[in-house]
């Protein structure tokens, strides 16, 4: 409900009604709405971390892994109202800080690990500055979820993510990597 409607507009009564339990039962498990939001966000971040690990283990190569992560983020983005992110930053700064820590620690590490894997596989350039590229990639992904930069009235989120990802891949891949990438997404070969 928070992801769909935002945090502020959802009441504890709404949560109890949607869950099919009394408001008293909700308060037996969560002292207040802040704790409920925090636990919900932790659950979501833990799930994201598990998906990162699954993608790493279940992908044939670094490009497939990267594209699975992009698809996951795209799907997640479709279920999150930007109002929720805004409200979290404004009214729940401690929870937002956990999100920021997750991005800086877990996502940057996952991106770096993917870059290292691609280099070992010979599909990413071996002269990449990993720390710079990992932070740049995180910034690219964050940009997509900022409505002021890519307003929904002008841009399709899926197209933006795909274009940014293709641009990123073209910058980091070797000739071999571009051929591998072309098997997953449309990239013009020169």
TrEMBL record:
Domain HTH tetR-type: where?
1-48
- Say which domain of life the source belongs to: Bacteria
Q: Which UniProt keywords apply?
A: Coiled coil, DNA-binding
Protein name, please? TetR/AcrR family transcriptional regulator
In which residue ranges does the UniProt entry place its DNA-binding region annotation? 11-30
InterPro entries, from UniProt? Homeodomain-like_sf (IPR009057), HTH-type_Tx_Regulator (IPR050624), HTH_TetR (IPR001647), Tet_transcr_reg_TetR-rel_C_sf (IPR036271)
- Which regions form coiled coils? 45-76
**Which Pfam families does the record cross-reference, listed alphabetically?**
TetR_N
């Amino acid at each position: 409900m928070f992801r769909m409607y935002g945090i502020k507009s959802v009441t504890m009564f709404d949560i109890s009604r949607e869950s099919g339990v009394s408001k008293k039962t909700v308060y037996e498990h969560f002292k207040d709405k802040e704790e409920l939001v925090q636990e919900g966000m932790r659950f979501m971040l833990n799930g994201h971390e598990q998906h990162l690990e699954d993608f790493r283990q279940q992908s044939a190569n670094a490009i497939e892994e990267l594209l699975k992560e992009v698809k996951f983020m795209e799907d997640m983005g479709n279920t999150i109202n930007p109002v929720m992110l805004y409200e979290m930053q404004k009214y729940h700064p401690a929870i937002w800080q956990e999100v920021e820590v997750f991005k800086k620690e877990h996502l940057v590490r996952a991106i770096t690990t993917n870059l290292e894997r691609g280099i070992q596989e010979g599909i990413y350039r071996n002269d990449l500055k990993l720390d710079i590229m990992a932070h740049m990639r995180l910034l690219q992904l964050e940009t997509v979820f900022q409505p002021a930069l890519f307003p929904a009235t002008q841009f399709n989120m899926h197209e933006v993510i795909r274009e940014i990802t293709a641009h990123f891949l073209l910058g980091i891949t070797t000739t071999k990597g571009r051929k591998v990438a072309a098997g997953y997404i449309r990239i013009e070969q020169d």
